[in-house]
Amino acid sequence: MQGSERSNRLLIATDGSLGSLAAAEEGVRLAKLLGAGVTFVGVAHAPLRVLGDPYYQRALGKNLGAMRAALAKSTPYAVERHVEYETELLEGSPAEVVLDLARSRDVDLIVVGSRGLGPTKGALLGSVSSEIVQRADRPVLVARPVDRRTGRSTRIAV
User: Fold this and answer.
1) Are the beta carbons of 44 and 37 closer than 8 angstroms?
2) Does 3.40.50.620 match the CATH number of domain 9-157?
3) Domain boundaries, the chain
4) Phi and psi at residue 134, in whole multiples of 5°?
5) Is 92 left (phi over 0), alpha (psi -120 to 50) or beta?
6) Among 77, 136, 90, 93, CA closest to 112
7) pLDDT at 152 > cutoff 90
């Protein structure tokens, strides 16, 4: 941006899935090319409060632990490529939290993974990446893991 001191920043959402690892790899590669920093975000889905406090806390702790592990799997991509990064571990609805964080940090690009469920399963199961793409107010890059049959990965920018 001309006349601006703003630094470029990418937000990479991760949940530890193969799709999110493809997003981490692709996002970091792009950040390196652009001289941008990266924020990795893991969002622990909040359990239902009706479970009661001890069960709620146990379930939340388990979800937070899973997201810590997901972040730990993603950050080596940045370390390996010498890309400046930070991590955020948050709680809530994953798509909502990612979109809110992207707005509050004014990131230039959101990078998410896709599990490649296809239109039928994706419609039935819902998709965080689809919701982010539909509701984002900034560019989104969707990365899919390498297809074992073709040896190629897919990247879709919207």
Assistant:
1) no
2) yes
3) 9-157
4) -70, -30
5) left
6) 136
7) no
Q: Beta-carbon neighbour count of residue 91 at 10 Å? A: 16
Structure tokens at 119: 């239109």
Which amino acid, residue 18? Answer: L
Q: Which residues contact 138 (CB under 8 A, 6 or more apart)?
A: 102, 107, 108, 109, 110
Answer for the pair 42, 89: CB distance below 8 angstroms, yes or no. yes
Q: Give which of 86, 48, 45 is closest to 66, Cα–Cα.
A: 45
- CB contact burial 44-61 (16+ within 10 A = b; e otherwise): bbebeeeeeeeeeeebbe
User: CA 12 to CA 105: how far, in whole Å?
Assistant: 12
Confidence of residue 125 (pLDDT cuts 50, 70, 90): very low
